[in-house]
């Protein structure tokens, strides 16, 4: 019984798999078409991250495939209809990176308020400008969370400890929900959230209804002192409109971990703007979250191969 792993997984998960089956592991296997096709020929299971597209072409190369494991949360690289049509089970790792993303957002807020990077760079240049290093507090700020799912709720919990007022908008959440009841979240319409928030953090999936959710109109609703944080999907933000708003001072700053094009083109309108924090889609990627996700998927893949039901089946 062969398990093919075409991208990086945690070493503990790899050891677990190797104790139960033949494992073909190469973190860059997805880049070698010939070797990948050969490995898939006798594969009962395939484990991927986000760079391997599992669609009809790949499935045709894996006639014995029974299960696909996605080490992560997003499912953009899985053709669910094609996988379902082949009778293959797909599993993933929901919730395993939620703490990492929530901490990233709080880190971005602290950087916006205190400017640690800028202040440290100034001192490394031999300067000692205390007035320029004076920042602001997070305490008392209003955080607007767009999407109060697993990540949004964890962010609310942590923001509550910082003494922030927390607003949220999510049509799937009601007044009896955990975050509302336990973390003092106020549910409000999107326009009200945008107008009242000092920080707006996006935590919704990319669907037709949310594409370009942040655009010229919604940006105009935000305070000129407000910050935007996007750790969800790049397509939620009209980047040209955001760049214009940032250059003109219509909002104070942005932290973007996800982009419409990854990596961005050389003509990226946000590159070089001093009020923008850019990271390469790593908000949910920490050593701890990678281990949680890898182990969760490895256990689920082995369950399926043993004829048992997976815990986290892709719908």
Which characteristics define this entry?
315 residues; alpha/beta; five-stranded parallel β-sheet
Roughly what fraction of the amino acids lie in strands? 15-25%
Total helix count?
A: 12
Radius of gyration, in Å, reads: 22 Å
In spatial order, strands of the major sheet run: 8-7-6-9-10-11-12
Strands, count: 12
Would you list the SSEs in sequence order as H and E?
A: EHEHEHEHEHHEHEHEHEHEHEEH
Termini separation comes to: 25 Å
Uncertain spans: none
Biggest sheet record:
7 strands, parallel
Which structural class is indicated by helix and strand composition? Answer: alpha/beta
Shape designation: elongated
Mean pLDDT: 96
Q: What percentage of residues falls in helices of 4 or more residues?
A: 25-40%
Describe this protein's structure.
This protein has a seven-stranded parallel β-sheet, with helices on both faces. Strands 2-1-3-4-5 form a five-stranded parallel β-sheet. Strand 4 (67-70), helix 4 and strand 5 (89-91) form a beta-alpha-beta unit. It is of the alpha/beta class and 315 residues long. It is built from twelve helices and twelve strands. Helix 1 (11-18) runs parallel beside helix 12 and helix 5 crosses helix 7. The chain is elongated and about 65 Å long.
